[in-house]
Amino acid sequence: MAGNRSVVLLSGGLDSYTAAAIAREQGYELYALTVKYGQRHAREILAARSVAEALAVKSHRELAVDLGSFGGSALVGDGEIPKAGPDASTIPVTYVPARNTVMLSLALAWAEVLGAFDIFIGVNALDYSGYPDCRPEYIAAFERLAALATKAGVEGGRFRIHAPLIAMTKAEIIRRGTALRLNYGLTHSCYDPLPDGGPCGRCDSCVIRARGFAEAGLVDPLLVTDEGRGR
Q1: Which of 12, 30, 203, 223 has the fewest CB atoms found within 10 Å of its own CB?
Q2: Which residues are bridge partners to 160 per DSSP?
Q3: 92, pLDDT greater than 90
Q4: Averaged pLDDT, 119-127
Q5: Residue range 81-94: mean pLDDT, rounded
Q6: Domains of the chain: which residue ranges?
Q7: Which CATH code for domain 2-223?
């Protein structure tokens, strides 16, 4: 039955995993979409596969859209990944031009084919790196666009872009996921992983993640070895 289907954008990171789990908790049948956009931290694609399996999604699609051919972001190899910590006063060089617009458009296309009207995305407007496409006004604008740009929308269907984490701190997100019994050891957040795939510990994403676990009073499972020692 199409009425309980949802398309979830699944990057392999902590936020998208939590947003997808919330969708599942709300009774949605999950159709997961992972976009390979040329990101230098392609390790997250492997994490997305693990997360999709853990969530028992109905279907998991991986699409390649090479935004790296345009450049314009350190995440696609155009410049170095900053290691000085987040700076809320400016949009960082890790911003990928129009990334969420591209991804939501792909999710919208698949949702229309599926007869689904619910799309979940794990954007966050509090503990984030200053990206303009993570704000509530952007999500609201895309929802209006979806109504105008699709056959289903013109015929009266109402697409809903769910961003359940948008007003939560990273610590609150981690607590929510922990309550849902999520295994954050499956996820990958680092923008510039080490040769063994482990987190660098210094990029914006690593710093925000570490702060979130600390404020939640929890230990990040990615930083614990089999013997229980830190990396």
Answers
A1: 223
A2: 118
A3: no
A4: 90
A5: 81
A6: 2-223
A7: 3.40.50.620
Spatial strand order in the sheet of 5-9: 59-64, 29-36, 5-9, 118-120, 160-162
User: What is the pTM for the complete model shown?
Assistant: 0.93
Task: State yes or no: pLDDT of 90 exceeds 90.
Answer: no
**First and final CA of the chain: distance in angstroms?**
46
pLDDT at residue 91 is higher than 50: yes
